[in-house]
Amino acid sequence: MGDSGQRHGLAAIGAVILLAASVGGWSWWNASRHRAEFRSALIEGDPGRAPDLVRRYGCGGCHTLTSVRGAAGRVGPPLDTVGQRVFLAGRLPNTPENLARWIHDPHGVDPQTAMPNTGISIDDARNVAAYLLQEAPR
Ligand code: HEC
């Protein structure tokens, strides 16, 4: 009697842990998805123009971006999950506007950085930033 009560108790605790883990996992996934939508909504930009810009300005020669064909460079960090970074290039707090700023003018942020200014305009940098923030956290 006492023994089976204990077993039931353990089974109940196990069920609660499983339930908590699955609810937690789901809400984490959901929250990160919403964060991605939320973040890309924080910047005025047209993400649809980005793949072309990434090719035109040679980003893909230095960075890997899985969703853009041919973007497989290994000079700089991969951009697939850049939205999850706390600091951009270890220097700038990762906000949407700072992301656009970095893309437009990395040397204005730090003249020593190995990333060259590519000549991309601030508006096009915002288009790329919107795309990266939409793509990033999966
Ligand atoms: C010649 C190579 C080169 C080109 C071209 C280049 N980058 Fe970079 N990029 C780098 C390097 C190297 C870093 C790391 C810089 C640092 O930490 O100082 C970097 C850093 C970055 C970061 C910060 C990443 C992070 O994880 O913190 C972003 C975002 C970025 N580049 C986007 C772009 C985009 C968009 C383009 C095209 C407009 C581009 N880059 C073109 C080499 C390049």
Automatic annotation (TrEMBL):
InterPro entries: Cyt_c-like_dom, Cyt_c-like_dom_sf
PROSITE patterns in alphabetical order: CYTC (PS51007)
Keyword Transmembrane: yes
Any Pfam family matching the protein: Cytochrom_C
GO terms for MF: electron transfer activity; heme binding; metal ion binding
Residues of the Cytochrome c domain: 45-136
TM region(s), chain numbering: 9-29
Record keywords, A-Z: Heme, Iron, Membrane, Metal-binding, Transmembrane, Transmembrane helix
Protein name: Cytochrome C
Top-level taxonomy: Bacteria, Pseudomonadati, Pseudomonadota, Alphaproteobacteria, Hyphomicrobiales
